[in-house]
Design brief:
It holds the Pfam family p450. Helix content is 57%, strand content 10%. By secondary structure, the protein is an alpha+beta fold. Helix 5 packs parallel to helix 11 (222-246) and helix 9 runs antiparallel to helix 13. The structure holds protoporphyrin IX containing FE. Protoporphyrin IX containing FE (HEM) binds at residues 107, 122-123, 134, 184, 279-280, 283-284, 287-288, 291, 345, 350-351, 354, 411-413, 417, 419-421, 424-425. Residues 107, 122-123, 134, 184, 279-280, 283-284, 287-288, 291, 345, 350-351, 354, 411-413, 417, 419-421, 424-425 line the site of protoporphyrin IX containing FE.
């Protein structure tokens, strides 16, 4: 009889002791998790002044991170704009944070960026809204639309490059910005009118310049000018949407697909459509144009890689010369060019870190992270880690002959927030490099490595000026001299 009491009591006691020990271990682990090393800076403003100084310097805003990474190691903390930021650069941390299987993190941009792209933007929407918007937008980046886009981008590139021999000195960044904006606007809202495109371009530049600014709404501030530019773009998009709703014409661009009536609960609102069209322009134009610019610079500095690339492109040219424009399938015949692109993206690290916010207290790599802290995956440090990429400062496309270590190539991010336009960006870079190498020889005129100030994405200040020599003209001249 006594056994009826003893067995449950012992069981209960066992459970109590077990729970207590788990609780105790958690408390101890929490108290043992170290705060990441770093400097809180001055009261309230923290290290904001140092951050702003880096943005305003020729080394670019990543220099702020690099200096501290060298001083404190893989994981450090700082305070910018009154908030705690942790920067972390290991493939294990990238996996944990970007895959976010435990749901500990959400994406978080600084206030100025959120205000400029709009709170319905994919970049800033709540997790639930993000899921809905992303599912709508992902379907737009289908193989069919990618094929159309390759054809359109190639046509724009051919037209643009055909005017070059009249100019001979070219700023790659300027040309690439023009072509990528035109291509993206055509794809999104079928906007082709030159004057509207020029105005839009100016406003997009104002938004870029405001993204890293202090969110102060005074008429002379960058932030205010960026907000005014956003308002003008919203008005333009309102006009386009209005006309589209009244028209019966089918244009087959992204807007047409987004406006198709569906179930009320899943249909995107006008504001969601507008914010996300702006987001795709912002996320797609500058990044791709900057990547193209870096790629041309790296190729110029690495004649061996350029030689190999030219050989591949010349062979392809023989096969496709009967066609006016490249197709998506043609891009699959450029294995070396694809590696050139990957290597350029690794070295340029256009988006140097990915911002997230901790939703609860957690631990990463033995460091305690508090709920509400900003935690940034420092992709650029991973891209230059000699333990992952040998001779990381050398441009070696063939390093991608073999698969790279998981979570080491982060140019387009990974996980639920991976770049939506990655295939499109790759395609644009392939088309551009094919047309350039098969039409021209070039020499970079200014090898200055300074980074442009006040830009969110890593961009060459010189824009990579080149002198071009038309291959066709060279051939004609040499034939003439022989006869
Ligand atoms: C070389 C060019 C590009 C680079 C290097 C790049 C890089 C990235 C990276 C690293 C992210 C993820 C950031 C994070 O996880 O926090 C991202 C997100 C995104 N990218 Fe790109 N991108 C490029 C081109 C494009 C293009 C052409 C488009 C579309 C037109 C685009 C649209 C987007 C969008 C919408 C997101 C947000 C995805 C989300 O939050 O769910 N990107 N991009």
């Amino acid at each position: 009889m006594l056994l009826w009491y003893i067995v449950p009591c012992v069981g209960l006691l066992y459970l109590l002791v077990k729970s207590f020990s788990i609780l105790w271990r958690t408390i101890i682990a929490k108290s043992q998790a170290k705060v990441p090393p770093g400097n809180w800076g001055l009261p309230v403003i923290g290290e904001t002044i140092n951050f702003m100084a880096a943005i305003n310097s020729n080394k670019g805003f990543y220099d702020f991170v690099q200096v501290r990474r060298l001083k404190y190691g893989n994981c450090f903390r700082t305070n910018i704009f009154g908030q705690t930021h942790v920067f972390i650069s290991s493939t294990e941390a990238a996996k944990k944070i970007l895959n976010n299987e435990a749901g500990n993190f959400t994406k978080r941009y600084i206030k100025s960026i959120a205000k400029l792209v709009g709170d319905q933007s994919l970049l800033c929407a709540s997790q639930r809204q993000h899921k809905l918007i992303r599912s709508h937008l992902s379907t737009l980046f289908s193989t069919t639309s990618l094929s159309t886009m390759v054809r359109q981008f190639d046509e724009l590139t051919v037209n643009n490059l055909s005017t070059w021999h009249e100019k001979s000195n070219i700023i790659i960044l300027h040309e690439a910005l023009k072509i990528t904006l035109e291509a993206i606007c055509k794809m999104l809202v079928n906007l082709e009118e030159k004057k509207e495109l020029e105005m839009l371009h100016k406003d997009v530049v104002l938004i870029y310049e405001a993204m890293l600014s202090f969110p102060l709404r005074l008429p002379w501030t960058r932030f205010y000018k960026g907000l005014q530019a956003r308002k003008r773009i919203m008005r333009l998009l309102d006009r386009i949407i209005d006309t589209r709703r009244k028209s019966k014409e089918k244009l087959d661009d992204f807007l047409d697909h987004l406006l198709i009536k569906g179930d009320q609960t899943t249909q995107l609102t006008n504001q969601q459509i507008k914010d996300n069209i702006l987001t795709m322009i912002i996320a797609g134009q500058d990044t791709t144009a900057s990547a193209i610019t870096w790629m041309i610079k790296y190729l110029d500095e690495n004649p061996e890689a350029l030689h190999k690339l030219r050989a591949e492109q010349a062979a392809l040219q023989q096969k496709v010369s009967h066609k006016a424009y490249l197709t998506l399938q043609d891009l699959n015949c450029m294995p070396y060019a694809s590696k050139v692109i990957k290597e350029s993206l690794r070295m340029a690290s256009i988006v140097p870190w990915f911002p997230r916010m901790a939703l609860q207290d957690c631990e990463i790599e033995g460091f305690g992270i508090k709920k509400g802290w900003n935690i940034n995956v420092d992709a650029k440090s991973i891209h230059f880690d000699p333990m992952i990429f040998h001779d990381p400062h050398k441009f070696i496309p063939s390093r991608f002959d073999d698969d790279s270590k998981p979570y080491s190539f982060l140019a387009f991010g990974v996980g639920g927030r991976t770049c939506l336009g990655l295939h499109l960006a790759r395609a644009m870079m392939l088309v551009f490099v094919y047309r350039l190498t098969t039409s021209y020889r070039w020499k970079v005129l200014d090898s200055d490595e300074s980074i442009e100030k006040w830009t969110l994405f890593s961009r060459l200040k010189s824009g990579c000026p080149i002198r071009v020599m038309c291959i066709e003209e060279e051939r004609e001249l040499s034939n003439a001299s022989k006869t």
